[in-house]
Amino acid sequence: MTNANPEPQTPAPTQGGFAATFEAIAANIERVVKGKRRLVRLLLLCLLAEGHVLLRDPPGAGKTVLAKTVARTLGLEFGRVQFTPDLLPSDVVGVSLWNPVLNGFEFRPGPVFAGLLLADEINRTSPRTQSALLEAMAERQVTVDGTTHALAAPFLVIATENSEEIEGTFPLPTSQLDRFLMSLSAGFPDRAAEAEILDSHLTGSPLDSLPAVTDTASVRSMIDMARAVHVAPAVRDYLVDLAFNSRVHGSIAGGMSPRAVLGLQRVAQVRAAASGRKFVLPDDVKDVARPILIHRLTLHQSAQFNGITPAAVIEEILTDTPSPPVSVR
Questions:
Q1: Which of 26, 148, 181, 299 has an alpha carbon within 20 to 30 A of 41's alpha carbon?
Q2: Cα gap 230→324, rounded to integer Å
């Protein structure tokens, strides 16, 4: 694990300065991650909603650089685990070893004890090792030999996943997928962004000189401010309607879980705060619904056979579920 050591250059945000700080963080990340404006903002929304991100992209698309850039910008300690078939749970969470000096067992923390953990190629390891992250992601703690150890706050997992067609991969179980608040894809850059990437790497990596623009205390403050954003009863009813309609949809075998509904509300709150508002609008929910639901909705085999996709079903649910009036306060 490495520390993101540059000193923060901006003070802790105030309620009115949330949007400005959010944009300053995003702009700093975009100094390295070129041409991915929406990806960067969705990832920040997820972090400030205390969620985790699954990145589904081919090798070389910049997933590791993105994770390191976010950690450096936010002043978070960075940890990385390369998931391989022989990886053990103790390689992730840590292990208790006998210390003859202390005449007792001493806990040696694993890389999960970081502010941002990159779980690289998570589906190349066995389900047993994948499950080592479940407690950490859901409860922000790990239990080793009967002793519970709290993790850092904030704590974000960015996991990368190989295509299931690649030999030696294990499908992520539903319980693991549901721990990821968002599923995102960076994709390859367009021509202009790729030219910028080439220019920025002529004399070295721009990540090497990237400053932090905030620190962990400020990030925690932003998380608390987002939680205070008002969600009107009509918007809560809208969230419940979306969940219900996903569960009764004819093409879906498994709809939104309560965890997904809670996550959708949390991200909508952060989006409202990042837009300079103290209340959530239906558009906040609609804008972030796709990356939150795309990996959670399991289609019936008949729907898959007919070429129906989860993305199409999400669009249908959003279109068919009436939303409350815009001026919801």
A1: 299
A2: 15
